[in-house]
Structure formats: structure tokens, C-alpha cells
Specification:
With about 325 residues, the chain is mainly alpha-helical. The chain has one domain. The chain has 14 helices and two strands. Strands 1-2 form a two-stranded antiparallel ribbon. It is globular, with a radius of gyration of 20 Å.
């Protein structure tokens, strides 16, 4: 068992799961046709909120994570109201500016955020689980694991449960009245409004949901890395989150999920070009815009997989 549980691979898997949450946060916002580049800012709000609460005020980690997600949601709703007047590239520029304002604020508010140096010594999710397990009389060697393996495995499993729950929630929402309202707004906003859909309410709701998931991912990121700095939430992070959705496809939730997995794992698989990953991302975007602007995964691809699955089941029966 020791040979199969590699802390490095588990850490990469943990970052993939966090990026899936970020991809889903972008999908929710895009599901109403709103192109937001402020998710790095919302992510930083979640990360710094839980960090300050757990380090400075000795709050439990779960309280800090929830508080970070809630505060990011509140800020997202506040930002969403003026954003209603903007569309397309203008909305993208405005939300990108919001993210940069948050980053500059984190750099200059040194008494609270320690400026550009960042904050270290953040309570680690895996180490907290290890300490709790030892307190109840359970040790990793009972499973034949070393401490670092147990820490990495526990982080991965916790994130996996969270990601599955979040994906299940938004899949269910997609087939609800809210999901149908989102789809109608994205297809034709004026027609949706004429049919009685409250455009303002659902756009703000989507903006708030996207901000909350991004803040939630940021809070988890802080407790997985145990160190954050404003540079972690700069312009490149906002673009990276957008690429997850654009590359994978924003029509269905599986698109950003695939984009997050592929684009996070690719630099690790191709280590010799990892320093040039943003150049590779740019080239991929150019190719995608030219040959498949809807992304790799769309409704037609999902339907094709479903038909193929039905066909295989009929043959087996």
C-alpha cells in the first residue's frame, strides 16, 4: 500500500480538485452569459478571510472556510449589481479591475495581510486531520501509512467529497427552475424577460454563486498550501480560471471539469515545458477559437457518449 500512495501525486490531485471548483465557479457565472474575470479576487477573499480568522482569532478551520465563502458571496452580490449594466468585454474588464483592486489592497494592507511577503503558518487541513485522529486514538501506522502519506491522502479524500457534492448540486440545479432561467437568459435575455423571468434576480444569483464557490476554493487552497500571498491571485490566476471553462467548454458543467483536470495535469506530465505553460495555454486558446469555439465538450459530445453507452448496454444484454 505504501508504494501506491505517493504524496506528490496526491498533492497534484488535490490541486486538480481545487481547480475543478474554480472551473465550476466560472461555469455558473457563464451560464447566464456573464463573462467575469474577477474570480481570482473572490478566491483571494476566501483565502485571506479564513487565514486571518484561524491565525489571528483562533477560529476553527471549518468556521474560517465557511466565513471565507460567505464573504466572497456577499462581495460578489455587491459587485454584481453595478455589473448588470455591463455586457461582454466591458464586464470582463470591470471584473478584472475588481480583482486587481483586491490584489493591490492585499499588498498595501500590511498590518493585516503582511503585504507582498504573504502569510505562512496557516493551519494545514491534513495536519489538522492527523492531530484529530491521534486524539481519538487512531494512528496512520494502523493502515500501514506514514504521516505524510496519511496527510496527503486525507486532504485528497476530503476535497474529493466536497467536489462531488458541489458538482451534484449544480447538476441538480441545472434541471431545476433556476437552471432553466439561467439557460433562457444566456440564449436571449430580452425574450426571457418578456416571458416573465426576473433577469436581475437570476443574474445576481449566478454572480453570487460563482463568487461563493471561488471563495470556497480559495479558502481550501489556503489550508492545503499553508501559505498565501497576493501573487497567488494575480491576473494570471483569473485568466487560468477562464481558460478552464473556455478550453473544456462552458455549455455543460463537464466542460470546465475536464478543462481543469487536463490543464492542471498537463504541466505536471510535461515537466520540461511547465515554465512555458501560459504560452501553451495561449496557443491552445488560438486553436480552440479557430476550430472549436464552443470548447472540447458540448451538448453534442455528451449526447454522443450517452448514445454509445446505451448501445454498449444493449449489446451486453
Amino acid at each position: 500500500m505504501l508504494e501506491f500512495i505517493n504524496p506528490y501525486y496526491l498533492q497534484v490531485g488535490s490541486f486538480i480538485l481545487i481547480n475543478i471548483l474554480l472551473g465550476v465557479s466560472m461555469y455558473v457565472t457563464l451560464s447566464t452569459g456573464q463573462l467575469s474575470l474577477g474570480h481570482a479576487g473572490f478566491m483571494s477573499i476566501g483565502a485571506y478571510t479564513t487565514t486571518i480568522l484561524t491565525l489571528n482569532y483562533d477560529m476553527p478551520m471549518i468556521v474560517g472556510i465557511v466565513a471565507g465563502a460567505v464573504l466572497a458571496c456577499i462581495v460578489g452580490v455587491i459587485v454584481g449589481f453595478p455589473a448588470l449594466r455591463l455586457e461582454g468585454v466591458y464586464l470582463a474588464i470591470a471584473t478584472l479591475g475588481f480583482g486587481e483592486v483586491i490584489r493591490v489592497l492585499l499588498i498595501n494592507w500590511e498590518s493585516l495581510t503582511k503585504g507582498a511577503v504573504g502569510i505562512s503558518g496557516i493551519p494545514h487541513l491534513g495536519r489538522e486531520v492527523l492531530a484529530f485522529s491521534k486524539n481519538i486514538g487512531f494512528t496512520p501506522d494502523m493502515l500501514g501509512l506514514r504521516n505524510n502519506q496519511f496527510i496527503s491522502l486525507s486532504v485528497f479524500l476530503i476535497l474529493l467529497v466536497i467536489v462531488v457534492a458541489v458538482i451534484a448540486f449544480f447538476i441538480r440545479q441545472q434541471h431545476s427552475r433556476i437552471g432553466r432561467a439561467y439557460a433562457s437568459i444566456k440564449m436571449d435575455e430580452r425574450a426571457a424577460e418578456a416571458m416573465g423571468v426576473n433577469i436581475t434576480y437570476y443574474k445576481i444569483l449566478a454572480f453570487g454563486q460563482g463568487a461563493m464557490i471561488a471563495g470556497f476554493a480559495g479558502a481550501l487552497y489556503a489550508h492545503v498550501t499553508a501559505y498565501i500571498s497576493p501573487s497567488d491571485f494575480a491576473y494570471h490566476r483569473a485568466v487560468e480560471i477562464l481558460i478552464f471553462a473556455v478550453f473544456g467548454g462552458s455549455e455543460v458543467i463537464w466542460g470546465p471539469i475536464f478543462g481543469s483536470i487536463f490543464l492542471t495535469a498537463m504541466p505536471e506530465v510535461l515537466r520540461f515545458i511547465s515554465d512555458y505553460r501560459f504560452m501553451v495555454y495561449g496557443a491552445l486558446l488560438i486553436v480552440m477559437m479557430a476550430y472549436r469555439p464552443q470548447g472540447l465538450i458540448d451538448i453534442k459530445v455528451i449526447n454522443w457518449f450517452k448514445k454509445r453507452g446505451r448501445g454498449q448496454r444493449r449489446k451486453s444484454s
